[in-house]
Structures are given as C-alpha cells and as structure tokens.
Design goal:
By secondary structure, the protein is mainly alpha-helical. It has helices spanning 3-22, 39-50, 59-63, 66-74, 76-91, 95-100, 102-108, 114-125, 131-136, 142-151, 157-187, 191-198, 203-216, 221-258; strands spanning 25-29, 33-37. Strands 1-2 form a two-stranded antiparallel ribbon.
C-alpha cells in the first residue's frame, strides 16, 4: 500500500475518533423541537472543511490528492459491507412485523418518483437544460449513475447532472437527513413512517436519518433500524426497476412537455 494511502487511513481514523468523542449533540429550538447532530455529521463537516483549498497544505494536500480521492471512492463499497451486514442482522428479528406491513413498504417506493414529479419542473425553472435529466431521475446514487452513464455517458450534460447530484448527496445528504427526520417527528409523523422513509437507497443517508430518530425514540431503536434497513434494501432492489419502467418514461414525457417551446 502506498504511503499516501496509509496517511489517508490514519487521517480517517483520527476524524472518526474526534467525531465519536464529540458524540451526539442536541440543539434545542424552542420548547419542544431539537436538532440532532450525529458523529457522522461532524465527521463529514470536518473532512469538508479540511478539504478546502486554503487548508490543503503539506500532508493534508497529499491526503486530498486526486489519486487518494479516486482510491477512496473505488473502495467505498467495501467499507459499507460491514454496515450492510449489521443492518441485515437487525432485520431478521423484526422480519415478521416487516412482512405484515409488506404492502406499505412497496407502496412507499412510489415516493421515488418525487424527484421527477417535483424536481424536474424546479430544475427547468432554474435554467437547467439536459442536465435536469441527470439530476432529477433519482437521488443520484449508484443506480442512476450507472443508468445515465450507460445511456448518455458521463461527459454529456445528463452525465454532468447526475455527477453533480451524486457529489452533493455525498457531501450534504447525510447532514440533511440527520436534521430533517427529527423535525418531521415533532410535526407529527410517526417514527415508524419516518424510518421507512429513511430507506432512500443510500447507506449513509439512511444511517444518518435512522440514527437521529433512534436518539429521539430510544425505546423503538431496533424497530426503527429494522424498518429503515428493510426499506433501504427494497429501494436498492426495486428502485432500479421503478427507475427504468416508471421514472425514466415519466421524466422523458415531462421534459418534452415542459421544454416544448424551448428551441435551445
């Protein structure tokens, strides 16, 4: 292993250790509402800040080199495997309850179409052209990335759109979900419904959302994790088919409808 890779691994462990020492922080907003900031959120923030150009000097510059970034991205799936195994073990004791609610889990998968129905018109209003196709087909995870790269290539406007969303989701997705899920729980949504909604096809986003919910509802911790894990698994599996047979045709129709007067 190259020395720069070793530096990167040590750097990652140091960031994780600092984030775990800080722990879960609750920021009260008003009398009843509080935002939950997880160690994962701190780890993302620290690595983002240290990656800013003014701070990339000396050994930090070596850690954030293009070669290291490509290496980290390539082996990210290996790092996620123990997490997925842990969630799989969590699903098993709750399997009977999950199966009994099977139709609900399947129905909520239709929510994946929200990126097209809601996001595409907004993207076009903001001035995006073909990039809107890449960045509104889904949450920009691996499934959408593979589909867009195969159909349009990543050098196309559609490819730039999905890559931009992938990067934004990686940087800010977990932070957003860790803040947003507890807020919705105070509005009145049940923790079970929010746990199911946490399974958006992204391991980091699901982990952030379900962990934040668990910190607010510790007595439902195992159920929340099981629901979120099962939902995430379904989204990863069924999401490919809903993208191919529902989201992509709907997006194509809406894009032509919304841009029919645009000659550019």
């Amino acid at each position: 292993m190259k020395k720069s890779y070793i530096y990167m691994v040590i750097f990652a462990f140091i960031i994780i250790a600092i984030a775990e020492i800080i722990g879960i922080q609750m920021i009260p907003i008003g009398e009843k509402l509080a935002l939950t900031i997880l160690p994962l959120a701190f780890a993302i923030l620290f690595t983002m800040l240290l990656g800013l150009k003014p701070l990339r000097k000396g050994i930090i510059a070596k850690i954030y080199s293009k070669e290291n970034v490509n290496f980290a991205g390539k082996y990210l799936i290996i790092i996620m495997l123990p997490l997925m195994a842990r969630y799989g073990a969590t699903i098993a004791p709750q399997l009977g309850d999950i199966v009994s609610k099977g139709p609900i889990f399947l129905f909520q998968e239709l929510g994946n179409l929200g990126t097209v129905v809601l996001g595409l018109p907004v993207a076009i209003l903001l001035g995006l052209k073909r990039e809107a196709i890449g960045c509104t087909l889904g949450l920009g995870r691996e499934g959408e990335l593979a589909y867009i790269s195969e159909k349009y290539t990543l050098d196309s406007p559609e490819g730039r759109g999905v890559l931009s969303l992938y990067i934004i989701g990686t940087l800010f997705g977990a932070l957003f979900f860790s803040f947003f899920a507890p807020i919705l729980s105070y509005v009145g949504y049940s923790p079970q419904a929010l746990a199911m909604a946490s399974g958006v096809g992204s391991g980091s986003m699901m982990a952030a959302s379900s962990s934040a919910l668990t910190s607010h509802f510790p007595e439902l911790g195992e159920q929340i994790t099981a629901y979120a894990s099962a939902s995430n698994l379904l989204t990863s599996f069924l999401g490919t088919y809903s993208m191919l047979f529902l989201a992509a045709p709907l997006q194509s129709f809406m894009y032509k409808l919304l841009t029919r007067g645009d000659k550019k």
